[in-house]
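We close this part of the discussion by returning to an individual protein. In the encoding step, the backbone of a single protein was reduced to a row of integers, each denoting a local shape. The sequence in question and its structure tokens are set out directly beneath this paragraph.
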Amino acid sequence: MAGLGFSPTLGSQEVVPLAPEDALKVHTFNEVCPLAFSPNGKWLAYVVRNNERAESENGNENEIYVRTGILASNRASDIRLSDTQTGETKSLTLEKGANWLPTWSPDGKSLAFFSDRDGSGQARVWVWDSVRDTLRRVSDKNVRANHLLKGIEWTPDSRKVLVTIVPDHSMNAYLQEVFASGKLPVRASSPVPGSTVALYESTEGSFEDTESSGGEVFNLNAFYLADLALIDVASGKSESLVRDERIGWYALSPDGTRVAYATPKRFYKPPLMERVYDLIIVNLATPQRNVVASDVLLDDVFSWSPDGAQLAYGTYGRDESDYRYYVAGSAGDPPREILALPHRAYQYHWQMPLWDPHGGAIYVLRDGALSRVEVSSGKSTNWPLIQGHKIVYRLSSVDGVLWTTNGGKSTIVLARDEEQKQEAFYKIDLATGRSDVLLERHESYSGKWITLDTRPYLAATSPDGQQLAYIAEDAGHSEDLWITDPEFRNPRQLTHLNPQLSRYQMGGSRIVTWLGDDGEVLHGALLLPSTYESGRRYPLIVWVYPGASLSDRVDRFGLTSQAGAFNLQLFATRGYAVLMPDAASHVGDRVQSLAKSVLSGVSKIVEMGIGDPERIGVIGDSQGGYAVLALITQTNRFKAAVSIAGWGDFFEYYGLMDKGGSGYQYAQAERQLGGTPWQFPERYIQNSPFYSFDRVETPLLLVHGSEDTSHPAFLADEVFVGLRRLGKRVEYARYQGETHVPGDWSFANQMDLASRMIQWFDRFLKPAMH
């Protein structure tokens, strides 16, 4: 049956432009923090970010994490609790500091979480006592748990928590050990007193050392070096089970007697991101170490069987042409391969194998379909795809166990229609594979990042299986929590995160389809003006990002994956139509393939009588910032352009070197252009807009953060200087102290950016107003 959507409130809405203050003073769900039902199902804990509390990072995000244990995604985060019956909601942490990863104790009396609310600037373990309604810091141990790792594991007796902490030596020693890894240079002092020289050396043939070249893109120690420790909640005493080692995904066995963890050793084919792991089980009583698997291309995550006797995990084959699932005994039995599947695509990721609640089988997700394999026999059942849909997410009752309903006869999955770009919850009969739609409207249910594991980021179930909570949004409504029974008979809205937005009449969205210049079928998400009238033409803004399926965002609020200045309702409520086209990006031919796909989409909107051909603008961020520059060197169709965190010269990728001497980003250039500049110098020139700046006639606003380490600001400096030298119309907004992602900038700078973009497009696409 179809569920209920957002309640219409048009009667109380105003036809006025969305104020930047209201668009930016938004609360959003933290994308990497699971939803957490209390054991009795009364409370739902979740994490909300307040964009108004955003501050400049003032440094490299990875370095900040190493020094503090806090990722950008967890800053300005607050833990909230909602009563699942009454809807009563309260802030547990009162927006003091950063607070994230709430985890209930098995007895339901305590809620553990990470926080820096003690003013130390360090992430530590805190606990809320639900009986006394008090908060306290459990320990002064500094934790290091990034969003790719397990956060907090309670022991079954609710007395201890398992976390990763800074190894037991001084913070300075820890920082030195982390930042010393993976560095290519040799630093040498000068015999001349007072000299500040730093000497970098490269010896013949030394670059391809796997550890070092892996460090070019990812410092393994920075993300993984830690102790795996048990902390007693009452006394604060800690016991390190594993010391000074790289700790990836870890999981306590259901009976609390063993812990399994993965340790990343090196990169398989640097500078790509696949990592070689050892998978290890530690007995808490001895503690005996058992290496389950060595030197495997593990996909980070694994899962315990419900009885804790076996461990299931998946690996890439050595030639990466297949993917294999194994089951290993917890007592040292060698792993058995139970399933091998072709490796066709990375879409939706290879997710953790989920166990049947009885432990006799595991369920895997591959290419949008669900499969079941018997652990004892290896017999597999492959159910057909849901018609027109691909499964993107499965529900788990606890980590690693598939959630079932109807007495174990069925489960619920989230699936996506790739043509219509609609998402839906489906019930799947686990005996026959039959699927029935439960909820499908023009809403998005997967706005949070779908990670490799299956923790309840998008939807959560109560321990008794009678309640299901999920996050929903659409183009005109920001995300909120909804709660329903397993049959979706009476969904009801549980939260109202952004009441300030309810007074606005927002623009509606739709999918548009066209043929690219090379004959391929392309889609785009079109956001209509909030005052749209059929037959009337509107100024059109095109948001671009090469190689991305932007049409997937058709039901995201404001058609964006970020809160703040990129909410495209800022334009729709000001009389603009906005197109987000799927944009091609062919290896070695990025500029032409991009232009062919995007410009044909623009023509489609004009042919539909919606876009005004004389008032078209273009905007993009990061790779999209590059795409903007590429497009305005190919056509004069755009009357205004905004390039954010972009660049114009592929050769400059070889000029990016970090403080330790490691180069980065050049591997991206080599992937996108098919080789090095010494192999294909013509490709590097032809795909670098810089060398065609003399063709530019479009007024350009350049935007960049001065502390951007992904694409340093000198790349934008070069664009500005080049265009100014040619006498082109260009403005450059360089935001001091800001990094790559505008959504992580200070609130004041986000406000300035939003206002500046609106004014820029109004200036050139609504000339009568100026």
User: Anything to note?
Assistant: Confidence is low (pLDDT under 50) at residues 1-11, 182-186, 205-217.
